[in-house]
Amino acid sequence: MQSNINIQSGNMIDKQHAINYSEGDDWRHLPSLHQRLIESAIEAATRAYAPYSKFKVGAALVNHEETIITGNNQENASYPMCNCAEQVALQKTYSDNRETKVKLFAVVALNGNAELIAAPCGACRQVLCETVNRSGTDFPIIMASQSGAYRIFHSVKDLLPFSFEGKDLTS
Ligand code: THU
Fold first, then answer.
1. Domain containing 90 — which CATH number?
2. Which of 9-23, 36-50, 81-95, 114-128 has the lowest mean pLDDT?
3. Which of 19, 22, 93, 149 could form an SS bridge with 158, CB 3.0 to 4.6 Å?
């Protein structure tokens, strides 16, 4: 909902920020690597530990060596301690090899609604941005449903405009 408070300021200008993404209704028509990654994410989601939310998330990435690495959400009775699938996948990847470059990333959610297109939470978007910055390599993110519908964001940076970054910490 938009605020109806009118701000008037002499030098203020209105701006827009556009993000680019592609959408499709059947990821089984995407290139085989994309399909394999989505299938790996779905498989990972089936192994999620989500007894509290029953919302199983799977993430899969392919690295510069063409290896697929997966992660899923790991919940805890102390709810704020739940770990998101995307972050688990990235932590697995970067704890094994800090020089990794991610080529492609996929996320899916299994919650009984096969049409649901998964969307990374804000914290995961922040971690994805850090991954781009630390590796010096941007990569596409596929958000997929089980049934087929998907969105592909060609740049992680589009997921978190005006993001807070390490360089902001230096004066
Ligand atoms: N979850 C993820 O794994 N990734 C996200 O980007 C969104 C949320 C998990 C956390 C929690 O285990 C469950 O989904 C419900 O929020």
1. 3.40.140.10
2. 9-23
3. 19
Nearest CA to ligand 1 atom 10: 84
In a domain, 168, yes or no: no
Please state, in angstroms and rounded to a whole number, the distance separating the CA atoms of residues 3 and 125. Answer: 26
Structural element, H or E, at residue 103: strand 102-110
Position 19 in a domain = no
Q: Is 86 considered catalytic here?
A: yes
The predicted model scores a pTM of 0.94
Task: Report whether 45 contacts 57 (CB < 8 A).
Answer: yes
The answer to whether position 18 is within a domain reads no
Between CA 134 and CA 94 the distance in angstroms is 10
Query: What is the number of structural domains in the chain?
Result: 1
Q: Domain of 117? A: 28-159
Choosing from 23, 43, 65, 86, the catalytic residue is: 86
Tokens of residue 163, six digits: 């993001």
The pLDDT assigned to 53 comes to: 98
Probe residue for ligand 1, chosen from 54, 61, 78, 82 as the CB with the greatest number of ligand atoms within 8 Å: 82
